[in-house]
Amino acid sequence: MSGDVLRIPTGKVHVSNDQSRELTISIESDRGVATVEEARAWTRARNVSEVECIVPDQSGVARGKLMPVAKFFSSNGMNMPQSIFYQTISGDYPELGEISTIDPADGDYVFKPDYSTLTMVPWESDPTAQVMHDAFHRDGRPVDIAPRQVLRRIVKLYENRGWKAVVAPEIEFYLVKPNTDPDYPLEPPVGRSGRPEVGRKSFSISAVNEFDPLFDDIYRFSEAQGLEIDTLIHEEGAAQMEINLRHGEPIALADQVFTFKRTIREAALLHNVYATFMAKPIASEPGSAMHIHQSIVDSATGQNIFSTPQGDPSPEFFAFIAGQQKYLPQVMCVLAPYVNSYRRLARGSTAPINTHWGYDNRTVGIRIPASGPNARRVENRIPSSDANPYLAIAASLAAGYLGIEEGLTPAEPIVGSAREMPHDLPRGLLEAVELFSGSDELREIFGDNFVTVYSEIKREEIETFMRVISPWEREYLLLNV
Question: What structural domains does the chain harbor?
């Protein structure tokens, strides 16, 4: 009975193999297993017929292949061209020149499943599973430009110091009417009342209730995937929502953000609504952010190193803040990756325009929420919701790490509003790319290959944007110049 699986009424799967060893695993878990044997049992228990083999690209777009379950387990990973990691959001490719990890013939990378991410695809009609894959060269080396590997590289820096980084993302997004013509502005959708939302309705329960059936599906899909939503709130904009996730390990949380964005879009489509994570989708409404709460714990003791044993803020806490102040502008093209992203960061808006910091202050880029010593953390309010979660978390943690490594000291905290203070973040994508590509410190921490590839992708996207004539140009230049 080699490989035979028997469903046990207690919710267990019993697997016998050639060595007459027994493997008993729980099938009650909705997300993740440890080994290929457990993955086989998990998929058989759920009658899975197909597996979505998913790879996040530089834009946070899901690339990959759909395989019959038998093919998935019989193959030794999957192969895809290297070019998936240097494709722009519009599907173009930059000129990359001589980069050591890129084959000019566009040969294949090998992609291996991370079984800890195995989960169902709840919106599919047939039982379908999904699993994230990591990229490797054929000799087994990790691909240093792959977003999951980039984040893993930064997490490793903390591990080498005996620390664990902890993050908790908050993701804002808009619900909008279906829009198939890009020349027309987006509009709020019609809820159960039959009327589109108008005005600002921050934290409104009734405004959320307008879309109860949609949110019921989001919760249902999330539960089926083992995703944990901490809170759901209505944000400031018309039909703008925010979902907060529970804190945890950075790669696992980036996986969750990646999966949540896909889940929310799929749930919205079932209700004839679009969900968009554009940073500034509607000109008259606030932009959407992805705030990242960050702390560091000692791996041996589990203690938050941002607090001393007496409960006071530690030197590492202040150095981490200083690193954010110094380096967040230099990683801005990762935190705000598109031309549209910078429309959110405008004076007079609720988005931060500088890297000042303050205690429980939502007008600054770096907020310190009110908390006890064990929960002391740093909230980075600068990233936009269009950012790749793997790269945004990596960039934010890298900035704090460099601050600790360099023993930096932050400026004084801001009391009161920072919204009228000088704008010290890059004002546009081209400026941000130049800061990123020109930083020796970032090239050291991320690697030359990633910085070069990512920078060239962004430059190519800028060139694509420059070929588009905007309504503003037609309105003010057509007959006036």
Answer: 27-143 (3.10.20.70), 153-446 (3.30.590.10)
